[in-house]
Amino acid sequence: MIDSPFVEVENLRFSRGDKSIFDGVGMQVPRGRITAIMGPSGTGKTTLLKLIGGQLTPDAGRVLIAGQDVHALSRKALFSLRRRMGMLFQSGALFSDLSVFENVAFPLRVHTDLPQAMIRDLVLMKLQAVGLRGARELMPAELSGGMARRVALARAIALDPDLVLYDEPFVGQDPISKGVLVQLIKRLNEALGLTSIVVSHDIQETLSIADYVYVIADGRVMAHGTPDSLDIDEDPRVSQFVHGEPDGPVPFHYPAPDYLHDILNLEGRP
Amino acid sequence: MIGRIVRLGRSGCDVLEALGRAGLFLAQSSVGMPSREGCYLWLRQMHFVGVLSLAIVLVSGLFIGMVLALQGYTILVDFGAEQALGQMVALSLLRELSPVVAALLFAGRAGSALTAEIGLMKATEQLTSMEMIGVDPLRRVVAPRLWAGFVALPVLTVGFSVVGVYGGYLVGVEWLGVFEGSYWSSMQSSVDFLADVGNGMVKSLVFALVVTWIAVFQGYDLVPTSEGISRATTRTVVYSSLAVLGLDFVLTAVMFGGFS
Amino acid sequence: MKRSKTMELGVGLFMLAGILGLLFLGLRVSGLTFTVPDDTFRLEANFANIGSLKPRSRVTMSGVTVGRVTAIDLDTEWYDARVTLELDAELEGRLPRDTTASVLTSGLLGEQYIGLSVGGDPEMLDDGDTIRDTQSAVVLEELIQQFVSSMVND
Fold it and tell me: B161 contacts in C (CB within 8 Å)?
């Protein structure tokens, strides 16, 4: 059910130094749905989010958000487009010199002229949604990792954005926090009608909430489809990833010379 | 041979590129009308780089003035010219020592802290998330620090001079017994406000710009790892010290070297 | 954002201290005075040699500072130094026409300044007049030369 894609990625190419990271990636993110981008570590999923958010510029290809080409916008237009986007960073990225309350209030203060009382109400609403209304006086250094990520989520949705980008929301969380975050992402998506892009390699959690899944590896889209159709996909790389097999088409070993050769050190290497 | 020339050319390109980036960075972050919020952020940075650096700068100034008076006295007394002590202390402080030593202390105390702070903000993705919220970190994070450094260092330099002159007075007049009147009058007859105090201030403004610029740029441009932050902090202190000393020579040559 | 009064006060005091410090450097260290230009009048004096006299050197009378040197130029007609003096207005019209101006040195190696000593002429110097009677700076080499030649003559 792909109606009017909100984000379109067309034939994206990107390389860092001599290393090609994306080689013709294309995807369509439907409006109001949770789209997951999955793949093994080191395939540049975070880079893809940065390309979508306009922080990096691709070598070729386009990213369209609501019909606007992100990388053709002026700096000013890009910043105003970003007001309609929220991003949840892997580390939370809370401003360490501001309290929890001020962190959530930050986007409201810089982008709106709302009176103090209204900002307070809005911030408390967002904090209530993530269950941390009681923690508003704490500083980011006093929060646990899971709490920091929930505060960051509250901040990401402070301006009621149209699009929220989640960068590895489940990584390094205990099962309880993971469950909480899964519930939050799902609930917020339904309640606010957000379009969500979740980048993750946590298969179970991601598949349980995603409406549509893209699997990327080796710089291209390996498979895409709904979570149900993904399991039965024939591609060996995808099935290795989904089933979590240690070795297969995605090799366990980093490219290296022949083991026997290396261990006998026939070439006199260090 | 060809390979070496190629490498030389490439490193030349790298240096030029870094300079260009730093220049663009300075232009983007320093130009623009400050907002109310910006004024407050500036105030906070003034507190951090200015007020909190005051103690170390003033104490150093006092000691340097005292040492100058002591050393100057032992030399001048050989010529029977200890009346010129005030002149010697004031001129060496105003023209050279205050701007240079205050800038070096500032680079160590405030510059390295600025680099580490901005670097850590970058490493923890605070700058990126600010950008994603739609706030330009150049305006919000870098600009207040840049302007605070630019204003704070000249003020610190003035403080350094004042305390240094007083330190010279303590040692020269109170301890070594130079006649008080000649301490001040030799100073007043030889120090010219525009040529000495003014040029010292110009030096200080130049150093302030260069040191703060290096500090914030190193912080903004570093590799966001713990090693990257420690390297960038070291680079801030090394580059700003070298830049201050080198620019001091150039400025002295232009101001006092008789090229006018 | 929480505003801290003590911090604002701290920065305010810091800036104020900077301004006061600059004032100290201006008044106490470089000896600037807030005298209105009307309070002075100008005299000129030609010297054959001014030694190391500089603009802003003191002009004294019986050891009391009564003015400053404002400009030193070369008089291309006579090839000597024309020194412009700025003196306190209270001396205007009270210095006799035969006042002597000499370039003196404070101490053996100290700065050079101009000493004025009055004569007995009934006519007085006015603004812009030239002091006729001047004594040049004592140049150490000339002094030694005179001393040596007088020794030889004895």
Answer: 21, 25, 29
CA distances from C89 to C35, C40, C132 (A): 11, 4, 20
Q: Residues 158..187 of A with a Cβ closer than 8 Å to B: which?
A: 165
- DSSP labels, B200-221: HHHHHHHHHHHHHHHHHHHHHH
- Whether B125 and chain A come into contact, CB under 8 Å, resolves to yes
Q: Give the model confidence (pLDDT) of B48-89 as tens digits.
A: 999 999 999 999 999 999 999 999 999 988 887 888 899 899
Q: pLDDT 10s digit of each residue in chain A, 270 long? A: 445 788 888 888 888 877 788 888 888 888 888 888 887 777 778 888 888 888 888 888 888 888 888 888 887 888 888 888 888 887 778 888 888 898 888 888 888 888 888 889 989 988 888 888 888 888 888 888 888 888 888 888 888 888 888 888 887 777 888 888 888 888 888 888 888 888 887 877 888 888 888 888 777 787 788 877 766 566 676 677 767 777 776 667 777 777 777 777 766 666
Q: Do the chains contact at B191 and C31, CB–CB below 8 Å?
A: yes
Chain B environment of A82 (Cβ under 8 Å)? 131-134
CA gap B204, A195 in Å, rounded: 53
In angstroms, the separation between the Cα of residue A147 and the nearest Cα of chain C is 22
Tell me whether A111 touches chain B (CB under 8 Å).
Answer: yes
pLDDT tens per residue, range B174-218 = 999 888 888 888 888 788 888 899 999 999 999 999 999 999 999
The β-bridge partners of B33 are none
Tell me the residue type at C132.
R
Q: Does B138 touch chain A (CB under 8 A)?
A: no
Question: Can you read off the two tokens belonging to residue A155?
Answer: 């901040």
CA distance C138 to chain B (A): 18
Q: Structure pTM?
A: 0.78
Q: Which residues pair with C102 in a beta bridge?
A: C115, C135
Angle at A159 between CA A153 and CA A164, to 5 degrees: 50
The verdict on A102 touching C (C-beta cutoff 8 Å) is yes
Q: Rounded to an integer, what distance in angstroms lies between the CA atom of residue C82 and that of residue C67?
A: 16
Q: Do A82 and B121 touch (CB under 8 A)?
A: no
Determine contact, residues C26/C52, Cβ cutoff 8 Å.
no
Q: Pick from A174, A182, A232, A184: which is nearest to A208 by CA?
A: A182
CA B15, B21, B24, B25: dihedral to nearest 10 degrees? -120
Residues of chain A with Cβ-Cβ distance to C2 below 8 Å are 102
Contact A107 B134 (CB under 8 A): yes
Token pair for A90: 């892997």
DSSP sequence for A147-214:
HHHHHHHHHHTTT--SEEEEESTTTT--HHHHHHHHHHHHHHHHHHT-EEEEEE--HHHHHHH-SEEE
Provide the 3-class DSSP secondary structure of residue B43. helix
The alpha carbon of residue A95 is apart from the nearest alpha carbon of chain B, in Å, by 6
Which residues 143-162 of B have a C-beta within 8 angstroms of C?
152, 154-155, 158-159, 161-162
